[in-house]
Amino acid sequence: MDIWFSALEWTQCLAQASPTLNELAQDLESLKLQVELLPQMQETVTQNLTSQVNFLSSQITTLSSSFTSFVNAMKWIVGFLAVLAAILTGFGSWIFKSSLDEAQTVAQNLISQRVESIIGEVVEERVIQIRQTLRREEVIGTTLVDYYLPHQTQPPSEFSLMQARGFQQVRFRSELGSLRRQPGDVVVLDLQNWQCESGEAYRSLFEGDNFRNPEAKAQREAAAKMLIDELLDVLSPSVVVVVYIKGQIEYLFGLNDRYVLAANNPVTLVGNVADGAYVVKGDRQM
Questions:
Q1: N-terminal to C-terminal alpha carbon distance within the chain
Q2: Rounded distance, CA 141 to CA 251, Å?
Q3: CA within 20 to 30 Å of 105's CA: 51, 122, 169, 199, which one?
Q4: pLDDT per residue over 194-223, tens digit each?
Q5: With DSSP H G I counted as helix, E B as strand and the rest as coil, what are the percentages for the chain, rounded to 5?
Q6: Contact status, residue 235 vs residue 181, Cβ threshold 8 Å
Q7: 227-246, pLDDT tens digit by residue?
Q8: How far apart are CA 142 and CA 180, in angstroms?
Q9: Whole-angstrom Cα distance, residue 51 to residue 111?
């Protein structure tokens, strides 16, 4: 029973295995075909790989060539920029040096022009002053001065100052008649060194207690008025009279229609006589 069952099982197993064998046969056939196609597939893969390798190689070559060209271009650009920078630096240095030289030249010219202008102004001003001085000296050199000291035989020291000033001529006069005949351009009336008829020095009427003494004041004013009026009577209105006295004579303030000046020391005496010379010249030109 067991043996029969086993034969029957084998029969069933073989019946069930028959399709499997067919499938195996088909699989073997398929595998055979794949084996036959394997060389072709390998060749195709090989060709594809070779093509890809060749493409990558060409791309690498192209990339390397491009990179080399880029590097060369960058070298050329860097070199060009370096040369350009050197040129610009040199040009800038030349321009700066030229500008500096031009600035120095302009500054020197401006300084020279300013110095010349200042010197010209100073020289011109000095020339004007010299011309004015020469004109004044010319006026003084053509002025005739009479130094009048009534009733005295010797000229005082102030007379020498008049001579040293450079007037054309300084004449000492002690008499009124000589002034009437030949009057000078400027006449000095010396009351400082004059002595009254009493023999007293006129200047003493201004000294000490006499300065505030009403009688002394009236006496000196009367004496001065007498001499001044006598002098003005014989002189032309164009003649300048300088009254020399170290004190104040009020009568002089009222002489507005004649050229009369007062001098209270030797310095103002010389200066007022010189001023009188200009007055005479101006009066003659009117």
A1: 191
A2: 32
A3: 122
A4: 988 777 888 888 887 777 788 888 888 888
A5: 75, 10, 20
A6: no
A7: 999 999 999 888 999 999 98
A8: 20
A9: 86
